[in-house]
Write a structure and sequence with these properties.
With 317 residues, the protein is α/β, with parallel strands linked by helices. It has a single domain, classed as TIM Barrel (Alpha-Beta Barrel), CATH 3.20.20. GO terms for molecular function: phosphoric diester hydrolase activity.
Length: 317
């Protein structure tokens, strides 16, 4: 069993557990296209290796919830791909019968039509439930199993899996392998101990590893983690440009989080400023991926149809 999160990581997870407040209208997408990322077999490490001509990307927090689309749902993620391609950060929880599902909270109450603790439920309890959006409206969409999400993501989007406490990472890694989805999955880690345990179980799986300063960078380099499997997560505050360059010099792409409680997150600050072009300032500072609750706003700044070559339109299966 994976060790419990260290205290700092636990506080960070608690910070992210606050419900996302939908404080603005989401504009409709332009056109009818869906934007898909297709990774060549075995090509995920190369995809994430930093290059000066790297394409900026969005990481969609909790699978891109929006009005009418619940967090951690396949339907929300598919809707987000109408705005642009990217990563889908989703939460993986385990039921009492071992079933792996997408669910952020410890209980069903906030995001579904059911009630009770997730860890005490079995799949027949979950299957009839429907998901509700951030305004509490029933979307009619179902709680997805991880296996279904892995099949959906292959050829469409890269999943970053936030594996909740009490969830067996070995079972997650086995489902990724069984689905043939290794080129579309990154594991989120919250401590070096956790990252090393994940590496021992799934040596080839990409991981986000926290590096917010030079001390944490040095600790990662001394840890024995395989450099080719690392993506740098630098937290929800901006670092100096030269620090991002240090990470780039090591071949690592940088994920900067603008997500979180809108009262003090970078997303909230930019929304209140009325100037979404400030996301471009973050990219120019050194971010390669912006992890956000305002996916439509970031995509509106970075989308360029001449850049995104893995673009096609079709209804998802």
């Amino acid at each position: 069993m994976i060790k419990r999160l260290q205290s700092l990581a636990f506080l960070f997870a608690l910070f992210l557990s606050c419900p996302i407040v939908q404080a603005e209208n989401v504009p409709p997408p332009v056109g009818d296209s869906y934007y898909y990322l297709e990774v060549p077999p075995g090509g995920l490490p190369d995809f994430f290796r930093w290059h000066p001509l790297r394409i900026p990307l969005v990481s969609h927090h909790r699978g891109a919830p929006a009005p009418g689309f619940a967090e951690n749902s396949i339907e929300a993620m598919q809707n987000a791909l109408r705005y642009g391609p990217g990563l889908m950060e989703v939460d993986v929880a385990q039921l009492a019968d071992g079933t792996l599902i997408l669910m952020h909270d410890n209980t069903l109450d906030r995001t579904t039509t059911g009630k009770g603790r997730v860890a005490e439920a079995v799949w027949p309890d979950i299957a009839p439930l429907t998901l509700v959006d951030q305004e509490g409206r029933n979307t009619g969409h179902r709680v997805p199993k991880l296996s279904d999400v892995l099949r959906w993501a292959t050829g469409r989007a890269i999943l970053t899996l936030d594996i909740k406490v009490g969830t067996d990472f070995r079972a997650v890694a086995q489902q990724v392998e069984d689905a043939g989805a290794s080129d579309y999955v990154v594991a989120i880690t919250y401590s070096l101990d956790q990252a090393l345990e994940y590496q021992a179980i799934a040596p080839s799986m990409m991981q986000t590893v926290t590096m917010r300063n030079v001390e944490e960078l040095a600790a990662v380099e001394a840890s024995g983690l395989k450099p080719e499997t690392i993506i740098a997560w630098t937290g929800t505050s901006l670092a100096p440009k030269d620090f991002y360059q240090m990470l780039h010099d090591r071949g690592w792409r940088v994920i900067v989080g603008t997500l979180g409680n809108p009262g003090y997150s970078i997303d909230g600050q930019i929304f209140r400023s009325g100037d979404d072009s400030k996301y471009l300032d973050i990219l120019n500072l050194g971010a390669d991926v912006i992890a956000t609750d305002r996916f439509w706003a970031v995509q509106g700044q970075i989308m360029n149809p001449n850049i995104f070559v893995f673009t096609r339109s079709k209804l998802y299966r």
